[in-house]
């Protein structure tokens, strides 16, 4: 059942623009402007609300496939920023990819963040190309497929941060982190609209959680 779902998920990824939770670009050429930007010296500034005493919900993540050490560091950054934003009410945890079952009655099944490469032509006809997409599995857990060979000069950390929004059940927004089209500067942190959607789903007040006050690009100025 798992492998059948995996196959259908991979087939889905061949159809650009068809998946609701995809993360799309209109060109594989990359974003030269982003590549030329100076390294960030300041991170996004998050609000600092009082954290939850105990995590009510843990979302386990497993990192699989041929991510480079640099890619893994970017994934960890995305996870850490989400955990700041979630403020202890929900918490992402990274679990070892041991292959052993971690299933038990109290823990939900993990989400797998998987590097996909060479499973489809690099250039797919059509108006948009998926960089990544996220598919829940029945019950709990799911798959996040990241097309690492399409990322180019884009920021894999932003791509994963966007997809983690889908993992939490947030759909696409008009702009900011959850916009369907990749943007080189507007998707660098967990913004208020995104965390408000998380709060609504979990019946939390938005100011129990944290969000970045401005995006990284403007905060650095
Ligand atoms: Zn998306």
Layout of helices and strands:
Layout: H1 2-12, E1 22-25, H2 32-36, E2 57-64, H3 69-86, E3 90-95, E4 111-116, E5 129-136, E6 142-147, H4 156-167, H5 192-201, H6 216-219
Parallel strand pairs: 2-3, 2-4, 4-6
Antiparallel strand pairs: 1-5, 5-6
Helix pairs in contact: 3-4
The chain binds zinc ion.
Zinc ion is lined by residues 21-23, 162, 166, 172, 180.
**Any idea what the CATH architecture is?**
3-Layer(aba) Sandwich
**Which percent bin holds the helix content?**
25-40%
Measured by DSSP, the beta-strand proportion falls in 15-25%
The geometry reads as: globular
> What's the rounded overall pLDDT mean?
78
List all distinct small molecules, including ions and cofactors, that are bound in this structure: zinc ion
CATH topology: Collagenase (Catalytic Domain)
**Strand order in the largest sheet:** 1-5-6-4-2-3
Per CATH, the superfamily is: Collagenase (Catalytic Domain)
How would you characterize the overall build of this protein?
This protein has 221 residues and is of the alpha/beta class. It has a single domain (2-219), classed as Collagenase (Catalytic Domain). The chain has six helices and six strands, in the order αβαβαββββααα. A six-stranded mixed β-sheet has the order 1-5-6-4-2-3, with helices on both faces. The longest helix has 18 residues, at 69-86. The radius of gyration is 17 Å and the shape is globular. It binds zinc ion (ZN). Zinc ion (ZN) binds at residues 21-23, 162, 166, 172, 180.
